[in-house]
TrEMBL record:
GO terms for molecular function: catalytic activity, acting on RNA; pseudouridine synthase activity; RNA binding. The keyword Nucleotide-binding does not apply. It catalyses: a uridine in RNA = a pseudouridine in RNA. Pfam families: PseudoU_synth_2. The keyword Phosphoprotein does not apply. This is Pseudouridine synthase. It comes from Nocardioides kongjuensis. SUPFAM superfamilies: Alpha-L RNA-binding motif, Pseudouridine synthase. Signal peptide: none annotated.
Length: 312
């Protein structure tokens, strides 16, 4: 059950003529964004009538009635099945999945959509309890906008073994990326440190004082507008491939955050970066045998690649 806090206050003369979202922020201590959400949910009443919009004006002496539902913990894992997540492999130690676009790996303060850990909980998987509460069992991550193969630890032993393997860089991570233009040379290594962007906190950039980051690439196909690359990550920084390709002036097709051409993105029908985790290889934490798991291109990426192949 969601608890709801009902509050009623007269509007002081000092707020006469103010917008209702501004008045709510002053009177009830909520953000204007939260105030707008409550208004949109018909939870705000002014002098007995529902408020029509956040820019409606209040009068001194009017009575504001607000119902404020308690907000859910943004880091709480909510068990819910997520359409499109495929189980590639499952045993007592690990579960390997094919993650679709639009799914985060675990909950975070800025994300309210579906998550991998929520899906696994909803599907009845028992995963490792090592790690922070909202990302238990998580030994690697893929961006919300990146699809493909990833492994999650189910046992505590598997968690520590895999966490160490990723730290020691003994895991083989292979991606395919469709990038604009033609990298020169056709294969090479980008060794450039990555840090948080100085102006936009949702982005990363090549920064002198950033963390050591190494990306190896080779061209699989070269077409008129774009090249299909196979990429091996030596390190695993957030947005690493996207940042390094952008730094080379060959951003992933569709990656508007990192400088991709919006006209080309529309032409190939992409609403996200063309980047897919195609293969993951590592020593199995229980058997020590080398195992490898693969994921084929999802429909949106396959379609975009065909458009690029057919462009003359």
């Amino acid at each position: 059950m969601t608890t709801v806090d009902h509050r009623s206050l007269p509007v002081p003369d000092s707020l006469d003529g103010e917008r209702v979202d501004v008045a709510m922020a002053q009177l009830f201590g909520v953000s204007r964004t939260r105030a707008a959400e409550l208004i949109a949910q018909d939870l705000v009443v002014l002098d007995g009538a529902p408020v029509s919009g956040k820019s409606e004006r209040v009068l001194g002496g009017s009575v504001l009635d607000v119902s404020i539902p308690a907000e859910a913990d943004p880091l709480e894992v909510v068990p819910e099945l997520v359409e499109g997540i495929k189980i590639i492999h499952d045993d007592d130690a690990i579960v390997v999945i094919d993650k679709p676009v639009g799914v985060a790996v675990h909950p975070s303060p800025g994300w309210r959509g579906p998550t991998v850990v929520g899906h696994l909980a909803g599907a009845g998987f028992r995963i490792s309890t090592s790690g922070a509460k909202e990302r238990e069992g998580i030994v690697q991550r893929l961006d919300v906008g990146t699809s493909g193969v990833m492994v999650i630890a189910k046992s505590e032993h598997a968690y520590s073994v895999l966490k160490n393997a990723f730290r020691r860089r003994t895991v083989d991570k292979t991606y395919h990326a469709l990038v604009q233009g033609h990298p020169d040379p056709l294969e090479g290594t980008v060794d450039a440190p990555i840090g948080r962007h100085p102006r936009f906190d949702y982005k990363f950039a090549v920064m002198e004082d950033g963390r050591h980051s190494v990306t190896h690439y080779e061209t699989l196909e070269a077409h008129r507008f774009a090249s299909l690359l196979e990429i091996h990550l030596e390190t695993g920084r957030t947005h690493q491939i996207r940042v390094h390709m952008s730094a080379l002036k060959h951003p992933c097709v569709g990656d508007l955050t990192y400088g991709a051409d919006p006209v080309l993105a529309r032409r190939v029908g992409l609403e996200r970066q063309w980047l897919h985790a195609v293969k993951l290889g590592f020593e199995h934490p229980e058997t020590n045998a080398y195992v490898e798991y693969e994921s084929s291109y999802p429909d949106d990426l396959a379609h975009a690649l065909e458009v690029i192949r057919d462009a003359h």
